[in-house]
Amino acid sequence: MYKAPRGTFDILPQEHACWKYVEEKAAFLCRLYGYQPLSTPIFEDAQVFAKTVAGGTDIIDKEMYIFKDKSGQELALRAEGTAPVCRAYLEHGLFNLPQPVKLYYIGPAFRYERPQSGRYRQHHQFGFEALGEADPALDAEVIEMAQQFFYSLGLPQLTIHLNSIGCKLCRPRYLVVLKQHYSSYMDQLCPDCKARLVKNPLRLLDCKKVSCQEIAKTAPKIPDYLCHECQIHFQSVQEYLGAVSIPFQLNPRLVRGLDYYTRTVFEIEPREAGGQSTLGGGGRYDHLIEELGGRPTPAVGFATGLERIILNLKNQRLDIPPLPKPDVFIAYLEQEAKIEAMKIASELRREGIPVIMATGDKSLKGQMRQANSLDIAYALILGEQELLQRTAMLRDMRSGEQKSIPLTEIAGFLKQFKM
Ligand code: AMP
């Protein structure tokens, strides 16, 4: 028996109510804030990620699904959503539109990770990006939007962690003192952190190992090393967040997994955090578009994982509206009635009434059992008697009440019922 590949899973019909709920909330939120949908291919030129998600991050080093197609071109499955959005922004000249351009996406992302609860090799991200604007008010709006998204889903118990990781000017100064700090603990660092010290020192602060976290606790704090402009920007983001009453926690050790961030970074966690708990994160990435060959273009965005949201919704046992069921089940007694049943099913569907018709020559009892198991409200039953009289029996599956109606009146009758 084949199985879905390790770290991936099927989303069965009964799960889809939850997915639809989250996706609809996402689309509504984007409408509220003026973000438009963008869909990008599931794979990109591998360089789109290699150039932007710089080396030294886990994603590039270990997690990308990279392959060559038959022409020898190196492609990568989408590892995250931001770089493809920026690629599309450049490719379609969206920088010529009034800025910022506000876009959102929902789709799968692929990372070769060690699968565990909340961490998969294929997961789905909802993200939104505002491109072409440096205003700190936009950073605050993106954070507010992320918070409002979780709030609208019924997940209000969150902590927003906020930090600034500076810019190309001030960050190098900080990295010098950070490296000095960590160098004096060299023999206590985990092997990954030893590599980070050389390749990507900012991520030292992000190590989940307890011993490395101890070292991070006494590390110099990046907000103390920000240049004047970055300080003002960070201050303004906090003021705007205050203005819209968004609570946040300053976290001077917060850095993001992806390397392209500048200034504002933030992450959102459920209150009782732990393990693979981060619900989403984002920040400003003022150099990414330039890395992809565009003019210097400031931008800010956020992404969240749908699987983790759904895990949280399930943990909270929130009432998710079920997917709509078909209105009517059509059952019949013999071949002649079956042909009539086909006609009625077809007519009703053309009238916009969702119908399931019995197939497979089951007994009437078997057909009704099927209608019951599908939890359909009404059954239309066609027998010999009904055919002669050009009628059908309409049965309310909950109360068991039955009533005969002329075939020509079924659609009108069901519509006025509008279950
Ligand atoms: P990132 O692009 O790493 O900032 O991820 C954005 C969000 O996607 C995270 O906060 C998670 O909610 C989710 N996410 C990232 N990686 C995975 C994964 N391997 N499995 C499930 N969800 C993930």
- CATH class categorisation of the largest domain: Alpha Beta
Q: Can you list the strand order of the major beta sheet? A: 1-5-6-11-10-9-7-8
Helices, by number, come to 15
Shape category? elongated
Proportion of residues in extended strands: 15-25%
Residues in helices, as a percent range: 25-40%
Report the span from N to C terminus: 41 Å
CATH architecture of the largest domain: 2-Layer Sandwich
> Which small molecules are bound?
adenosine monophosphate
Describe this structure in words.
With 419 residues, the chain is of the alpha+beta class. It has two domains: 248 residues, Bira Bifunctional Protein, Domain 2 (BirA Bifunctional Protein, domain 2, 2-Layer Sandwich); 87 residues, Rossmann fold. 38% of the residues lie in helices and 21% in strands. The chain is built from 15 helices and 16 strands. It has an eight-stranded mixed sheet with strand order 1-5-6-11-10-9-7-8, with helices on both faces. The chain has a five-stranded mixed sheet with strand order 13-12-14-15-16, sandwiched between helices. It has a three-stranded antiparallel sheet with strand order 2-4-3. α1 packs antiparallel against α5 and α5 runs parallel beside α9. The longest helix is centred in the N-terminal third of the chain and has 18 residues. The radius of gyration is 28 Å and the shape is elongated. The model has no long low-confidence stretch (mean pLDDT 92). The structure holds adenosine monophosphate. The site of adenosine monophosphate (AMP) has 18 residues, from β6, β10, β11 and α11. The site of adenosine monophosphate has 18 residues, from β6, β10, β11 and α11.
